[in-house]
Design a protein that fits this description.
295 residues, 2 domains, elongated
Length: 295
């Protein structure tokens, strides 16, 4: 299928079942809110090497904010509730409690399981912490040097999906980077999804396995331009650069909508092909055919 100058390959993205939490973070102003989000989401691109995949879902309006202050929602994905139960309190304690003026609320009202948050972090209060019931939910007030860190005792965990993806291929570096930005910017503040890699894009796509036994994944050699002639390349003949946008979402509909918006945004001059990463349908139960996104 060809759209403008771009060949959309007849293939599909293969995604996996994951678990996620939704945290609402508030702060005194936008500066400290962004500082908190940047710190918390850092090193949260892929569970191949990170403790979780994390990103800002969207900014909230002041009417949506639980305490009337600037607020945003963060989605955090992992393969199990247990893994989230380790990663999220650790990140929150190190990155949110330390950030001036922040507070943390549960952004889900239901889920399959729950993980502790303030229940663990409260011990930093060294016995001076206090609990508070608000609308039937328990919070902890941990004394800190600018007042108190107000944090939900626990977070609901729900079933989500990780690994929706598009692989764009450009002729020149400016073309490829511009296409990457269009693909990601089309998703700003879209509910229910995150793009956890730097700037929403990964230059180092991966494949399952490696010639080195200790590695679970290794470089996507079929899309590396420097390996043409060495491996069986999947690059378009005119492509010299490739980037992958990876999308985690709360459900199939959220990922499908995000992939559709990105796909429509990326096609155009300088982007000669768009593909997707999959494993022959053998590993992930969720499949997103590219041509189906455009029908």
């Amino acid at each position: 299928m060809r759209i403008a100058d771009t060949e959309v390959e007849d293939t599909f993205a293969e995604a996996f079942r994951m678990r996620f939490v939704r945290m609402i973070v508030t702060a005194h102003d936008e500066h400290w809110l962004q500082a908190a989000a940047t710190e918390f989401c850092g090193y949260g691109s892929s569970v191949i090497g990170c403790d979780a995949e994390a990103g800002v879902e969207r900014r909230l309006t002041l009417e949506e904010s639980p305490d009337g202050r600037p607020a945003l929602a963060i989605l955090v994905f992992g393969f199990s509730a247990d893994s989230l139960g380790k990663a999220v309190p650790n990140r929150a304690g190190q990155c949110l409690m330390t950030c001036p003026t922040t507070a943390v609320y549960d952004g889900l009202t239901e889920g399959d399981e729950r993980i502790p948050l303030g229940k663990h972090i409260r011990y930093f209060g060294d016995g001076f912490q206090k609990s508070k019931l608000l609308d039937g939910k328990r919070y902890w007030r941990v004394p800190v040097m600018d007042g108190e860190f107000f944090v939900a005792e626990s977070l609901h965990v729900a079933k989500g999906i990780g690994g929706g993806n598009l692989i764009l291929q450009g002729v020149t570096l400016p073309d490829a980077l511009a296409g990457a930005r269009r693909a990601v910017e089309a998703l700003v503040d879209l509910p229910g999804i995150i793009t956890p890699f730097p700037g929403g894009m990964a230059r180092s796509g991966s494949k399952v396995g490696s010639r080195y036994k200790r590695l679970l994944a290794s470089t996507a050699d079929a899309y590396c331009p420097t390996l043409r002639g060495t491996v069986e390349s999947r690059l378009h003949p005119d492509a010299n650069y490739a980037y992958e946008i990876v999308i985690d979402g709360v459900d199939e509909a959220a990922i499908r909508q995000a992939m559709t918006l990105s796909l429509k945004a990326v096609v155009g001059s300088g982007i000669v092909a768009v593909s997707a990463g999959n494993y022959g349908g053998k590993l992930g139960k969720f499949h997103f055919p590219l041509h189906g996104l455009l029908s």
